[in-house]
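Field reference: sequence -> structure
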Amino acid sequence: MNSKNVQTKWGQFIPLVTVFFFWGFVAASNDILIPVFKKAFDLTQGQSQLVSLAFYIAYTVGSLIYMGISLLMKEDLVNKIGYKNGLALGLGISALGTLLFYPAANTGSFPLMLSGLFIVALGFSLQQTVANPLAIALGPITTGSQRLTLAGGINNFGTTIGPLVVSFAIFGSSAGANTEMSIESVKIPYLVLGLAFLLVAILLKFSSLPDKPEAVVEVKNEVNASRSSALKYPQLIMGMIAIFVYVGVEVSTASNLPAYMENIINLKTNLKFTVQDIAPYISLYWASLMIGRWTGAVGAFTDDMNLQKVFKFLAPYLAFGVFLLVNAIAKHDLTPFYVYGLIIFVLIAADILSKGNPARMLLIFSVLGIVALGIGMTTSGMTSVYAFTSVGLFCSTLWPCIFTLAISGLGKNTSQGSSFLIMMIMGGGIVSWLQGYISESIGIQGSYIVGVLCFVYLAFYAWKVSGILKNQGIDFDKPVSGGH
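Structure field:
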């Protein structure tokens, strides 16, 4: 274990999390672009989903390009150019993508719009490859997953305000803006975003971020001494599958919720949900990720257990308050959401039981995810809606847990392993499509069995990886000397 990094390096961590904000801001803003493009370009529903496909497939393509370049160089690309240069390069690529929105809006070209989004996400792929392990590296390994959770909370802040900002930039204060004006207006916010990418690239380039951090020190023993590739580490191979199914269940649960609420709930109960009525519940699902991540990040701030317990109660309700405030501004009825505050207690209890151990947290939260989906599949009415929505709470800290476990002990192969993990984000599209396909045979409510199977694998990985890492001399229950 590495004992040198005994404190979280906040002076380096704070500028780093700006890129996490951008990922959330842009990804959530795509939900605004889809209906705009569908109407403006007269697209079918399937064609409009090319927005999501172009965005998420770029992560896989970017990872493949990264590995191909590293192979040609016979040296890992990020290790060669440095972590700061890697982040700056990724931001520069994303900035180039935003420039395409100008000619695309002027010519009314849907393919150019998709190309712009693809290139933006291509840059994100490199940024994610660098930023995730770097967030873990800026302090002791034992709180690495909590720093990544905190960064994820900043990401979710971006998902919360991104759609609001882009919607206002496109439509203004009037929801009745004409389609042509909407398309013309797309270029301005994205050009501003491109400028922000460049400014942050300069900021990070001249920041105190390390170029070659001790990401997660590889323990030199007979178990891993001869491993020259990231793919020779079982924690990474199994972790790649875990990232695939985790992103899959996270995205598919939300993407199939509108169909469930609009069709099944209306048929089985006297509740009547329109598309407009469903929107706040989708918002609650994604806000649940922010609630969970703010809770899980508390340990990154202090070692004082009594103080942690206080913050673990305050942080989730502060995040819940952000959700309520946003929906109050949008003039939604908040009454149905107050009961959700009780479900947040389950999250807090689970987080305390995990004691900051990423493997234990992954196991507990995966089991709770299975329970939530099971309740949603076997009940009806608002009980099932809240059950499905609470999956967001139990998905909230899984990314940092899996990522930390998967790259622990990789040493010089850390950035390569990170790239393999980023590639598996494609699970969001594939698992979501699979659940939709299965729903045509067994119904939308029964199709959530796909999510249950995803959580079952995640629970298995949590159990298995603990033994794998202990054999390599890595134990997350052993405290690192020193304090925050």
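Note: The radius of gyration is 22 Å.
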